[in-house]
Structure of Outer membrane protein TolC:
Amino acid sequence: MKKLILLTFLTFAITAKAQEIKSLTLKDAISYALENKADAKKAKLKVENSEYQIQEVRSRALPQISANGSLTYNPVLQTTFLDSGSFGGEPGTTIQANFGQKWSSVAGVSLTQTIFDQSVFTGLKAARTTREFYQINQQLTEEQVIERVANNYYQVYVQRQNLTVLDSTYINTTKVKNIIKGQYDNGLAKKIDLDRTLVKLSNIDTQRQQVLNAVQIQENALKFYMGMPIETKIEIPQAAFEVSPQSFSEAPNTETRTEFLLMKKQEQLLEFQKKSVMAAYYPTLSLSAGYNYIGQGPQMPWGAKPSDGVYWSDFSSIGLNLRVPIFSGFETRSKVRKADVELRSMKEDLIDTKLSLDLAFANAKTQIDNSLITIQNQKGNAQLAKDVLSNTKNNYIQGLASLTDLLDAENAHTEAQNNYTAAILNYKLAEIQLIKSKGELRTLINN
């Protein structure tokens, strides 16, 4: 019985925790996304991986040491024929000689050290630039995460505001329905008027269900872009959506934008790629050394002694290896020219990207101006529609306005409120684009 009670309590506790509502400011949502979204995590892993790439290239400049061993059995030994006069015998007489032994075993250590290789030096510089590239890429990825989260955050707000407007409309229409029902019960209103209000309530309820679904879908999208479990319940504080006009300074320096800096690093990498190809024109110099121990005899050398006919001896070597390229069939020249074309293409992309970033700032600035005007107009229009609805409702109660006038006033009020909410959304989305065009998306975390 006690186990059953404990299990019931735990189930209740888990359910309650699952239903706990998490209040999210924009700062909270962005911070959560930067810690949990897969894109942000993968960008950090790429930075970490770049360190290993540097170590991989650096290894080419370090000594390469290896141990080797072999065991060989020769069923048939190579035979050669020699003039016996070379060995003190009678000239002109040929003798037959076998080279080697049936068994041989070699064990040794070899070392190779690069002394000069232009491709290694270029590769080290390129690897460091690759690390810087991934660091900038991480910053760009985080900015993209911030942008997506902020956009979806405001869209959730709009959908919830639409739901609030419908709830308010439903309450007001219910009050009108109750008034008409009272009049109908007293013979002062027609049944068709009561039926029209019931139809109106049914339509509002249907619209509310549609908006409720839209809210859920938009919230799920926000949670996805945050990397948050879909089942988490969230709410967005109303205070987060104040409209504060942005100060317009002179156009920002787009060359400091993350997108532009990333492409500049790509340009540097292409330059190193060209230099790496050109390294094929340079000679290479390396040092090699080896020490080996060899055993030979008529039987397997392992564990055998000279009394068994097996003898062991050592040998070593030290050498310099120089390679000077002379002609490669124009392969290197073709590769260099190909790398140069890619580099020139990147320079054109940089020019186009700068123009694109300048355009984004100009458009965001224009959209902000238009949105502020629209917000002021829609705010005034919403207040006017509210006053018209209030006056029409009073006139209807006094018999000075028709039910059609009242329902039209309600529709106009609902539409005006939705338009005002949509205007705020357009402003907030334009605000994000303006902040992005100024390269200040990370300031959203500090607000």
Q: What stands out?
A: The first helix runs from residue 2 to 18. The longest strand covers residues 103-116.
